[in-house]
Amino acid sequence: MVPEYVARHHARALGPNQCCSAVVRRIDAPVSTVWSVVRRFDNPQAYKHFLKSCHLIRGDGDVGTLREVRVVSGLPAGKSTERLEILDDERHVISFSVVGGDHRLHNYRSVTTLHPAAADTIVRCNLQSLAQIAENMVAAAAAGENDVN
């Protein structure tokens, strides 16, 4: 059973020819570490390895900011224009919608939420590379602490 505080950002009424999905990933890192990577609307290629580059078209990273991302070759698109819809640092929610590009995505919206769980973080999206990056950041920080002692 998905808690209400998680479901509120991931429930959507679907129309004809529409679909949705949710993927849950447990990451062995604190929410603050994972969020420091995820919240960067200007740098999604840091953890989304299918993206080649990103630049902000309008705005400075607040809600309403537009970005253009370029995807790696071999995918059925070259670029996508996306608008930041939600950036909630308190609840660890980020959402964007696709508003243009040379692809067939229409009415596409992505929502990522982070939730603390014991000693790690639950991420509602498909981000295996995010897990690797955040876990490496924690390991590097721990190694740095061990070097100081």
Structure explained in plain terms:
With 149 residues, the chain is α+β, with helices and mostly antiparallel strands. Helices cover 22% and strands 34% of the residues. Helix 2 crosses helix 3.
Helices, strands, pairings?
Elements: H1 4-7, E1 24-27, H2 31-38, E2 51-58, E3 66-71, E4 79-88, E5 93-101, E6 109-117, E7 120-124, H3 128-148
Antiparallel strand pairs: 1-7, 2-3, 3-4, 4-5, 5-6, 6-7
The gist of it:
Keywords: Abscisic acid signaling pathway, Cytoplasm, Nucleus, Protein phosphatase inhibitor, Receptor. This protein has three helices and seven strands, in the order αβαββββββα.
Order of helices and strands: HEHEEEEEEH
CATH architecture: 2-Layer Sandwich
CATH fold type: Alpha-D-Glucose-1,6-Bisphosphate, Chain A, domain 4
- Work out the strand percent: 25-35%
* Multimeric state: single chain
Mean pLDDT: 80
Structure annotation, total helices: 3
Q: Please compute the radius of gyration using only Cα atoms.
A: 16 Å
Strand order of the largest sheet: 1-7-6-5-4-3-2
Helix content: 10-25%
CATH class: Alpha Beta
Domain module count? 1
- How many beta-strand segments? 7
Give the CA-CA distance, first to last residue: 44 Å
**By helix and strand content, what is the structural category?**
alpha+beta
